[in-house]
Amino acid sequence: MADDEAAAVRQVWSALGLPGIIDVHTHFMPKSVMDKVWNYFDSAGPMLGRSWPITYRMDEVRRVEALRSFGVRRFTSLVYPHKPDMAAWLNQWSAEFARQTPDCLSTATFYPEPGAAGYVAEAIRNGTRLFKAHIQVGDYDPNDPLLEDVWGLIEDHGTPVVIHCGSGPQPGRFTGPEPIRRLLRHYPRLTLIVAHMGMPEYGDFLDICLDSVGVHLDTTMAFTAFVDELMPFPSAEAGRLRAAGERILFGSDFPNIPYGYRDALAAISAVPGIDDAWLRGVLHDNAARLFAIDFR
């Protein structure tokens, strides 16, 4: 990674008077799992209709160093299972990673399986700051009865959940806004962070965000040229995007992005109709408030 990229990223947030960036959507995983994720993107071109090169395909130490060089003050280790008997092990790995990496918000996950409430409760006791749910990869209904106690625990403790529930880049059996609407009818106090702005169902997830108590959206990959070729954010939603400003958090999908980190920041900065106050909120202030982070 070139020094000029880090300098360009730092220039964006420093010009806004921020102490750095809070990135709520980054991935750190056990090497065996990350290798499989990268292999998926390497082979997914025909399915996605394009190649998906991994820009930051480097070892874990260098990836952490890259984020720090960008001025990312807090980031996440979003892990997610695709089958039973996987989540508890991922949680153990992620908790240890956070202990060794104090600028990482301790992250955990879950899957609809017997015992899920037990390891979710343990994760909360051990200081998990957020959970990750991936409806598409996990191929499960968020309203599965096996998750009733899980959602109840998470709602009661107010722990945010980054949830990939939109139908991009490929729809799943349980993706889209309706399963989330049903979920929120049962657990209206959930703090959800809808990944990727809910693409491509942007308008529906803006509805959910603006009508809810605690639903947020993360910007992961949204507004970039890579995504706009197939799933552009609708210009007609510009006003509601501004209105939802305090509920929008910056996410990058680092390291699994097919472009540079500075490109993600440039794309957000170029969104029509937004101003510096909106950018300050998205890049730092909104997440700092949600996670009670104070760098002073």
Task: Note the topology.
Elements: H1 3-15, E1 21-22, H2 31-43, H3 45-48, H4 60-70, E2 72-76, H5 87-100, E3 104-105, E4 107-109, H6 116-125, E5 130-134, H7 135-138, H8 148-157, E6 161-164, H9 177-186, E7 192-194, H10 202-211, E8 215-218, H11 225-228, H12 238-243, E9 248-249, H13 261-269, H14 276-290
Helix pairs in contact: 1-13, 5-6, 6-8
What does this 3D model show about the protein?
InterPro entries: ACMSD (IPR032465), Amidohydro-rel (IPR006680), Metal_Hydrolase (IPR032466). Keywords: Hydrolase, Lyase. There is one protein chain. This protein is of the alpha/beta class and 296 residues long. It has one domain: TIM Barrel (Alpha-Beta Barrel). Helices cover 45% and strands 10% of the residues. The protein is built from 14 helices and nine strands. It has helices spanning 3-15, 31-43, 45-48, 60-70, 87-100, 116-125, 135-138, 148-157, 177-186, 202-211, 225-228, 238-243, 261-269, 276-290; strands at 21-22, 72-76, 104-105, 107-109, 130-134, 161-164, 192-194, 215-218, 248-249. It has a six-stranded parallel sheet with strand order 4-5-6-7-8-9. Strands 1-2-3 form a three-stranded parallel sheet. It starts with a helix and ends in a 6-residue tail after the last helix. The model has no long low-confidence stretch (mean pLDDT 96).
